[in-house]
Amino acid sequence: EAQVTQNPRYLITVTGKKLTVTCSQNMNHEYMSWYRQDPGLGLRQIYYSMNVEVTDKGDVPEGYKVSRKEKRNFPLILESPSPNQTSLYFCASSLSAGGRTEAFFGQGTRLTVV
Amino acid sequence: GQQVMQIPQYQHVQEGEDFTTYCNSSTTLSNIQWYKQRPGGHPVFLIQLVKSGEVKKQKRLTFQFGEAKKNSSLHITATQTTDVGTYFCAVSGGSYIPTFGRGTSLIVHP
Questions:
Q1: pLDDT cut 70: percent of chain A above it
Q2: Residue A19, CB half-sphere, CA atoms under 13 Å: how many?
Q3: B6 with B67: CB under 8 angstroms?
Q4: Nearest to A43 among B44, B88, B91 (CB)
Q5: Chain B CB within 8 Å of residue A99 CB
Q6: What DSSP character marks residue B87?
Q7: Quick one: DSSP state of residue A73?
Q8: How confident is the model at residue B93 (pLDDT cuts 50, 70, 90)?
Q9: Is A103's Cβ below 8 Å from some Cβ in B?
Q10: Range with lowest mean pLDDT among A42-51, B32-41, B87-96
Q11: From the CA of B80, how many Å to the nearest CA of chain A?
């Protein structure tokens, strides 16, 4: 089954404690991206990757890092989380560059930073 | 990224009534996509429109792309409780970053 898998689904952490949210897709997609969703603000792109070892900033990259060492995986790293990073996070993948082909979203990770 | 305005933010309807959400851009779009997110769920792709004036239908859903490729609409005929959720448009005006509208939340009252 074609899918994007994120882990964990829920996470509560404390300010400053490094965390990683994993994302994996099994569709051999080249394009992967991370979004955060906040009430009334829709989906805002954090980082995206066009292919292995190619990553770039989206609209709201501050406080986040990503890596793309393998085609299927695109982890999101928060080196020093802060309360304003409390949000619902989605990983997505698509066959080609963002917005031109169907995007497949993971189930989401609800992060709370206290 | 590309700017896109989606209205309304919320829409309450009685079951059986129609529903429409609009997505507007100040610049010409190369294409537009529509997604649906059920409460507690993740966005799921519905459709992509590419051609000027394009109209596509999926059962009770009708999607339109404006002649100038600057706006789009999603219309649901005779809403059902299964239509509840937030509907997003996503546009890519030429960059690699797709921009999502803020979404329209549809609430259907039985």
A1: 99
A2: 20
A3: no
A4: B88
A5: yes
A6: E
A7: B
A8: low
A9: yes
A10: B87-96
A11: 24
| Positive or negative: CA dihedral B34, B3, B71, B85 | positive
pLDDT digits (tens, 9 = 90+) for B17-30: 999 999 999 889 98
Q: How high does pLDDT run on average in chain A?
A: 95
Which H or E element spans position B32? strand B32-37
One-letter identity of residue A4: V
C-alpha dihedral sign at B19, B24, B30, B32: negative
Terminal CA-to-CA distance of chain B, rounded, Å?
Answer: 39
User: Hey, which bits of chain A come out as E strands?
Assistant: 4-7, 10-13, 19-25, 31-38, 42-51, 54-57, 65-66, 76-78, 87-94, 103-105, 109-113
Task: Return the structure tokens found at A88.
Answer: 């619902």
Structure tokens given for B96: 């690699």
Residues A91, B87, B25, A92: what is their CA dihedral angle, to the nearest 10 degrees? 10
Nearest to B42 among A90, A98, A102 (CB): A90
Closest by Cα among A76, A98, A87, A77 to A37: A87
> Which of A102, A107, A110 is most worth mutating to test chain B (most B CB atoms within 10 A of its CB)?
A102
Distance CA(A27)–CA(A72), nearest Å, equals: 8
Chain A residue closest in CA terms to B1: A59
